[in-house]
Amino acid sequence: xxxxxxxxxxxxxxxxxxxxxxxxxxxxxxxxxxxxxxxxxxxxxxxxxxxxxxxxxxxxxxxxxxxxxxxxxxxxxxxxxx
Length: 82
Prior knowledge:
The protein has 82 residues and is an alpha+beta fold. Helix content is 15%, strand content 21%.
C-alpha cells in the first residue's frame, strides 16, 4: 500500500487500519479495503463525516497515520547539452 494514490486527485492516501479504509484528507473521502484489496474507484469513495475527518486529520498531524507516498516536485524536462 506504500505507493497507492487517490484516483481523483493523484495525491497520497492515509491507511486507517482499524476501519479498513484509505483516507484522502484533501477531499474528505475514503476508499474501502475489501479483503486486503483497496477499492480505488472514484464512484465507490465515501464522504467522511466532519467529526471522523477531524479525528483522522488530528491523527495525521500527530504522525499516527502515514501517507502512502510523499509527493516530490517534478524535476521538469531534462536538460541536454548541445
